[in-house]
UniProtKB/TrEMBL annotation, chain B:
It comes from Electrophorus electricus (Electric eel). Pfam families: Clat_adaptor_s. GO terms for biological process: Golgi to vacuole transport; intracellular protein transport. GO terms for cellular component: AP-3 adaptor complex; cytoplasmic vesicle membrane; Golgi apparatus. Residues 1-144 form the AP complex mu/sigma subunit domain. Keywords: Cytoplasmic vesicle, Golgi apparatus, Membrane, Protein transport, Transport. The lineage of its organism: Eukaryota, Metazoa, Chordata, Craniata, Vertebrata. Part of the AP-3 complex, an adaptor-related complex which is not clathrin-associated. The complex is associated with the Golgi region as well as more peripheral structures. It facilitates the budding of vesicles from the Golgi membrane and may be directly involved in trafficking to lysosomes. In concert with the BLOC-1 complex, AP-3 is required to target cargos into vesicles assembled at cell bodies for delivery into neurites and nerve terminals. This is AP complex mu/sigma subunit domain-containing protein.
Length: 1247, 193
């Protein structure tokens, strides 16, 4: 054997391995592609061989080639083969290749499910690790669904190495299979307190990723994270948590208050810059969430700004960059604090590092004021000139425009200056942002009426100068501004001094080289100009000029008629005909000017881009309803294909519809007109109608500030923005002087009333009045527009699906248990093949799940009572709060609202939420009050799990009262629990059965519903207690089974001190806690009030599973009635059937076929006669009671598969004909098979 | 989340590429090329962050890189990651490589890209940071190397011998392209991650 291996490897060693491949590629620098293609051919040969080592080597090489950009998806199947090698070395190669090239579209990925599952449960932790790592890269929704449960069990693996990987990969699973989030979340939360720091860090990581997208669902975890933050020393974890808090604070301002102090402490104490930086960031987030103005918070801001200044001044560029980044966040809410560091930021504009310059630019956005806008923009314009890279220059350009146009041109005092800036920017070569400048020009010209004269003059100059026409037009985006220039000149042509000249400029032959949409605008606006020229010359006696203009158009327009652009052509030919007609009229000396200009009469009003969308739909209006009756289907079918060449018949039929409704339509039209007249949002064509909605300053009524005379209306030549700086300064001085005069008068009157305000600096923001007025955007929006910010949300965001409310999962009064449909699928078959029997396999898993949970319920109970306690404390606490002096003003709105909520009866909010409230509201309790209370109190409250909750003391009597209540509550809980139990487990007894067949009934409506089934069978019963049990194989440990026993108290007394004991056999042993002797019983971890049932689970280890066996056991307990208590015992026999060692395991038909072919299996068969039940019921029973899954079902024949906990394969072929069922079975362990078949037989003999 | 991890040399030749979101090979190559262009034209003394939003979806993304001698290590991350933290992570990564390869140089990465992948897998999983403690990473990597050796057993010996012989045939193979001074000042002070 060994020789064979050596021989094989000697054959192999002359194969090319990865190193040889790399070496080869390096040696073939000239013909690399050719060399690689021969290598790929070799690899293809190697992949055809049977030797897995050769294959692995080939796959390893492919992985390298993938990095070089070669597609290797053709080898996907071979990769799967290598992945399934039993050797770790090869397996790892396979998984690496898969992680590099598999994705959701890879079809072989579905073959991997079982392999991955096997690796996940491998005894070797590195097999599991490699599978998890690989899976994290290529998990698909199917894989996530099928493996979610396996991964979840790994989260509790004994090895932290596996635990942390399993925890981390859950995030990917959630993304692909959001349904898994709710069932998995409690365990994920547990992992936050895992003893291993790596696991803890992984859990924090996952929850932070989840919370980042849907923070509100994770608010209830804040206390836990707070605890971690104050206790953890791992900087990675701290950073993550602090980042998470940054996301949570906007939702809960009280959280922010609680955070400030520890964060400030961290800022002072930490030496890790990364931590410091994140702390500063979160403090900023907190400050943003708290509306500013509190005195103690301004200290925090100062601290942050100071620290950031230190970062920015650091020689390390990274810190500088981050400092600026954080500064820009402060800027949004506290611009004043940042503005004091203007020097530093302007300095950064000169930094050699582009990233830093860009960040500094961002900051400038918030630093401008009316006062310094011109100055800052001037500086930026200098940078524009100096900038070498186009990207940076473009960035500067957009920033200049951003800065100037922000909040509706708030800071612009002189629009002539702004227009000149825009015109100067047009001199930039090769910018991508021509359209941006153009839209600014249009915007300003339309909305600032006073500037139109100036703007038109400038635009005419732009059109005339033609420097924009030169150069490579297509590449040069700047020609876009001509679009704006032409339109402005045309639309506002009445302001033009010499329209003729502009018209001439617009019709130059060179224009034809511009992009089509610009030419179209040129043509259209030439017509407008034409109308203006006509009008100008109309009154004059000399008609020659007007006729010359017509002639000019007739000469030049044919150039555009020939344009390849459809729109240009259409407009040009239309206008050409028009002009020709006009020329005819002119020759007859007919006055046409008025009629021509009527073509372009009326003014365009600005409308905000989103205005239309924001008009709310009036009540009662159904936009989807047909206005007229829909055309009948046959017509529409006819119409569709013929739409382009529509014939007359369909038209006729449509006309009929109209006729029918003619009167009704007329009536509606009337009504609509009426409504429109009253509707302020309806834009009407006639200017008179505007008056209807002129309560707000409208176009006509805008109090346009007259342009100050000190500003010349036109700067000769190309405008120089700099001139405006000086002019502006003069204007302001003058204004100030005027104001002072007024103020003096006022002062005299008021004596010293407001003296302080007047002294506040040479000029404050308000003092600077703009030279021009902007039509405010609000007018452009409908009044009751819905303020919706979700316009930009991406509907395809995968995280949307993860927006799942987890709070009620984490216990509360309205605790919503996981619905059956929400549980993780446990080893079910794939959905596509699913028929009713598998569904039952699924249910089987679910009951398991339910059982697992029921053991948790005890814990829940404990917590509930604790919460109850807390609530009471809180009520009292609230009482205390009411006594204290009112909180500082700014806090009030939040606080008052919250206190109302907290004081409300606890039933209204979920316990967890009010828990959070309590945690949060406890923060601002002032110490003096506590002291005042202290003497009165004697007993401290029960120890609390959260150390940071101040422990309120409480008087004696209240406590005893509370204890009583607690008891009552407990009882109630238990009753509730009983109900739940019936629901989950007692499927057999009546109403509870529905949970089992839920899925079946829904999905298989056409078939008969299954009768309710339960695997629980009676263990023992007497007049006090009834025990039913079920046995399941343990998924993780091949030598363990879990016995779930439900104890039901049938008596009227209290049952307590229950002890469960069995006599171990050689083969099967009850797992007892360490140190216990093999004869000790296990204490059942609960007591049973009358009528209550509860479930306990006991783990047994078994050695051989091929034979069924019975274990004798005894349950001892104490019956406690009102006056007496007696010891009782109940003997029972636990029957371990072979079935109970089987685990429902899905199997693919190809793997199944392989298994059967392999010939390792022994066969046996069974015949059942006289069975009168539908085939799918039969299958369902086998699946449910014997833990099989259906591999394939064809008519009345089905193949089924199951696996024992020790890995034996059991295959069944079930056939039915005439009430006879024959089962052919194969298994690698004959005696196991025989016993399973016996048990199956027994199952069916009972019915 | 980390979106991608790229290592390439001063000429833009990829030495390792790990994408945590799927792209087809052409786009991957394009991303590598563009990233190289962005990163390589930057001076030595500028900050290590770059807004590379256009490369791998979303403006939320940043490129965080370090340059060691002949190699660039580039991490593309979104805003959930701490910038300075990632810089430290790169440092941990490089130091780990240095330990695992004993004075790592570019050639180690060229010829043993699979090993680099395996080391990386112990640090970052599916785009999330798995482990930052260097000793822990090295322990796990070593344990796996040991397993690999034991599996190869006698069968592995001849192959190793042959590969040694093959290497002997390459006297010109430069051995001393050291990755340089990796103990670059860690001014970020994430003390003992």
């Amino acid at each position: 054997m060994a020789l064979k291996i050596v021989k094989g490897s000697i054959d192999r060693m002359f194969d090319k391995n990865l190193q040889d491949l790399v070496r080869g590629i390096r040696n073939h620098k000239e013909d690399e592609a050719k060399y690689i293609s021969t290598c790929i051919d070799e690899i293809k040969q190697e992949l055809k061989q049977d030797n897995i080592a050769v294959k692995a080597n080939a796959v390893c090489k492919l992985t390298y080639l993938q990095m070089l950009g070669y597609d290797i998806s053709w080898a996907a199947f071979n990769i799967v083969e290598v992945m399934s090698s039993s050797k770790f070395t090869y397996k790892r190669i396979g998984y690496l290749a898969a992680s590099q090239c598999f994705h959701e579209g890879t079809d072989v990925i579905m073959l991997t499910t079982n392999q991955i599952r096997k690796d996940l449960s491998s005894p070797n932790q590195y097999d599991t690790g490699v599978a998890l790592t690989g899976l994290s890269c290529f998990v698909t929704p199917d894989l996530a669904r099928d493996l979610a449960n396996d991964i979840m069990t790994l989260m509790s693996h004994t090895k932290p190495y596996i635990r942390k990987k399993a925890v981390l990969i859950m995030y990917k699973v959630f993304l692909k299979y959001p349904e898994s989030l709710r069932p998995a979340f409690p365990r994920l939360k547990e992992k936050l307190e895992d003893p291993d720091p790596g696991v803890q860090s992984a859990a924090v990581n996952v929850i932070c990723e989840l919370a980042r997208r849907n923070p509100k669902n994770y608010l209830s975890l804040a206390p836990l994270f707070f605890k971690l933050m104050t206790s953890s020393t791992n900087n990675w974890v701290l950073i993550k948590i602090i980042k998470l808090f940054g996301a949570l604070t906007p939702l809960e301002p009280r959280l922010g208050k609680k955070l400030i102090e520890p964060l400030t402490n961290l800022i002072h104490s930490t030496s890790a810059m990364s931590l410091l930086y994140e702390c500063v960031n979160t403090v900023i987030a907190v400050l943003i969430s708290l509306s500013s103005g509190m005195p103690n918070h301004s200290a925090s801001i100062q601290l942050c700004v100071q620290k950031l200044r230190i970062l920015i001044e650091d020689s390390d560029q990274n810190l500088k960059y981050l400092g600026l980044l954080a500064m820009s966040k402060i800027l949004k809410t506290h611009p004043k604090s940042v503005q004091s560091h203007k020097d530093l930021i302007l300095q950064c504009l000169d930094d050699k590092d582009e990233s830093i310059r860009l960040r500094a630019l961002d900051l400038l956005y918030g630093m401008v004021s009316k006062k310094n806008l011109m100055e800052i923009v001037k500086k930026l314009m200098l940078h524009v000139d100096k900038a070498e890279g186009t990207t940076y220059r473009d960035e500067l350009l957009t920033k200049i425009i951003d800065i100037c146009s922000q909040s509706n041109y708030q800071y612009i005092t002189n629009f002539e200056w702004y227009i000149s800036i825009l015109v100067e920017l047009t001199r930039l070569e090769g910018t991508r942002h021509g359209h941006l400048i153009a839209s600014q020009m249009l915007d300003v010209a339309i909305r600032v009426k006073a500037i139109r004269g100036f703007a038109v003059a400038q635009m005419a100059m732009l059109l005339d100068s033609g420097h924009l026409l030169t150069g490579n037009m297509q590449r040069n985006g700047i020609c876009e501004v001509l679009y704006a220039a032409a339109w402005i000149c045309g639309e506002f042509s009445e302001h033009l001094d010499d329209p003729m000249q502009t018209l001439e400029a617009m019709l130059r032959p060179k224009v034809a080289s511009l992009p089509g949409h610009i030419q179209a605008v040129y043509v259209q606006n030439a017509a407008k100009l034409f109308a203006t020229v006509l009008q100008k010359h109309e009154g004059a006696t000399d008609s020659q000029a007007a006729q010359d203009t017509s002639q000019l158009l007739i000469e030049r327009l044919p150039l555009f008629v020939q344009s390849a652009n459809l729109e240009v052509q259409e407009r040009a030919s239309c206008i050409l005909q028009l002009v020709k007609y006009i020329q005819k009229l002119q020759q007859k000396d007919v006055e046409v000017a008025e009629e021509v200009s009527a073509l372009f009469a009326g003014e365009l009003n600005p409308v905000a881009p989103k205005a239309q969308k924001k008009v709310p739909v009036p009540e009662g209006l159904d936009l989807d309803a047909w206005i007229n009756e829909p055309p009948s289907e046959s017509e529409s079918e006819d119409e569709k294909p013929k739409a382009v060449f529509a014939k007359e018949e369909p038209k006729q039929s449509r006309a009929r519809h109209i006729e029918v409704d003619e009167k009704e339509l007329a009536r509606r039209r009337e009504a609509r007109k009426q409504e429109q007249a009253n509707n302020p949002f309806y834009i009407k064509s006639s200017p008179s109608s505007q008056k209807v909605y002129q309560d707000a300053p409208g176009v006509e009524h805008i109090p346009v500030v007259q342009i100050d005379l000190s500003v010349p209306l036109k700067v000769p030549g190309m405008p120089m923005s700099e001139q405006y700086l000086k002019l502006e300064e003069e204007r302001r001085q003058k204004e100030r002087a005027d104001k002072k005069k007024k103020d003096k008068k006022k002062k005299k009157r008021e004596k010293r009333g407001k003296g302080k305000r007047d002294d506040s600096g040479p000029e404050s923001e308000e003092d600077i009045t703009p030279a021009h007025q902007v039509d405010i955007v609000t007018e452009e929006m409908p009044e009751n527009a819905l303020p919706s910010d979700d316009d930009d949300k991406d509907p395809n965001d995968p995280h949307k699906a993860l927006d799942i409310d987890l709070d009620n999962l984490l216990l509360g009064n309205d605790y919503r248990p996981l619905a059956d449909s929400e549980k993780l699928p446990v080893r079910t078959h794939r959905r596509e093949v699913l028929k009713s029997p598998e569904e039952d396999g699924d249910q089987d898993g679910i009951t398991q799940e339910a059982k697992r949970r029921s053991s948790k319920e005890k814990k829940e109970k404990d917590r509930k009572s604790k919460e109850e306690e807390k609530k009471k404390k809180k009520k009292k606490h609230k009482h205390v709060v009411e006594e204290e002096p009112p909180e500082p003003l700014s806090e009030e709105p939040v606080q008052s609202e919250e206190s109302a909520e907290v004081a409300a009866p606890p039933t209204s909010t979920s316990a967890e939420a009010s828990d959070l409230d309590f945690w949060l509201s406890s923060a601002p309790v002032p110490p003096p009050i506590k002291e005042a209370l202290a003497p009165k109190t004697s007993v401290a409250a029960a120890p609390d799990s959260e150390p940071d909750v101040p422990k309120d003391a409480e008087p004696d009597e209240e406590k005893s009262l509370k204890n009583k209540k607690k008891k009552q509550k407990k009882e109630k809980d238990e009753k509730k629990k009983k109900k739940r139990h019936h629901h989950h487990h007692h499927h057999g007894d009546g109403g509870g059965g529905d949970s089992v067949q839920n899925g079946t009934v829904e999905e298989e409506e056409e078939e008969e519903p299954l009768p309710p089934m339960s695997n629980y069978c009676l263990l023992a019963e007497n007049s006090y207690i009834k025990m039913v049990y079920d046995i399941q194989g343990n998924l993780q440990d091949g030598s363990q089974v879990v016995v779930s026993v439900i104890f039901e108290n049938k008596s009227n007394s209290f049952l307590k001190s229950m002890e469960f004991n069995v006599l171990d056999s050689l083969n099967s042993k009850l797992q007892r806690p360490e140190g216990a002797s093999p004869h000790d019983g296990l204490v059942v971890p609960f007591q049973l009030p009358p009528g209550v049932s509860n479930e306990a689970r006991f783990v047994f280890s078994v050695q051989s599973i091929v034979m069924p066996q019975k274990l004798k056991g005894t349950l001892t307990f104490i019956v406690k009635s009102e006056d007496s208590s007696t010891h009782e015992k109940l003997d029972f026999k636990l029957h371990f059937t072979c079935t109970s060692y089987l685990i429902t395991t899905p199997c693919y038909s190809d793997a199944y076929a392989k298994l059967l072919e392999s010939g390792d299996l022994k066969s046996s068969s069974l015949k059942l006669e006289g069975l009168n039940m539908p085939f799918h019921h039969l299958l369902a029973r086998i699946c449910f009671h014997h833990h099989f899954s259906v591999v394939e079902r064809i008519d009345s024949c089905a193949s089924m598969y199951s696996r024992s906990i020790q890995g034996h394969h059991v295959c069944l072929l079930v056939k039915t004909a005439n009430q006879t069922v024959s089962i052919d079975a194969k298994c690698d362990e004959p005696s196991l098979l025989a016993n399973v078949l016996d048990e199956i037989k027994q199952t069916f003999s009972q019915c | 989340m980390i979106k991608a991890i790229l290592i390439f040399n001063n000429h833009g030749k990829p030495r390792l590429s790990k994408f945590y979101e799927h792209y087809n090979e052409d786009i991957e190559q394009q991303i590598i090329r563009e990233t190289f262009h962005l990163v390589s034209k930057r001076d030595e003394n500028v900050c290590n962050f770059l807004e590379g939003g256009l490369l791998i979806g979303g403006s939320d993304n940043k490129l965080i890189y370090r340059h060691y001698a002949t190699l660039y290590f580039v991490f593309c991350v979104d805003s959930a990651e701490s910038e300075l933290g990632i810089l430290d992570l790169i440092q941990v990564f490089v130091e780990t490589l240095d330990k695992c390869f004993e004075n790592v140089c570019e050639l180690d990465l060229i010829f043993h890209v699979d090993k680099v992948h395996h080391i990386l897998a112990e640090m970052v999983m599916g785009g999330m940071v798995l482990e930052t403690n260097m000793n822990e990473i090295i322990t796990q990597v070593d344990a796996q190397v040991k397993m690999e050796r034991s599996e190869a057993g006698i069968a592995g010996a001849p192959a190793r011998a042959v590969s040694a012989v093959k290497n002997m045939n390459l006297p010109e193979m430069p051995k001393n392209i050291n990755i340089g001074d990796i103990s670059i000042k860690v001014n970020l002070l994430l003390q003992r991650l």
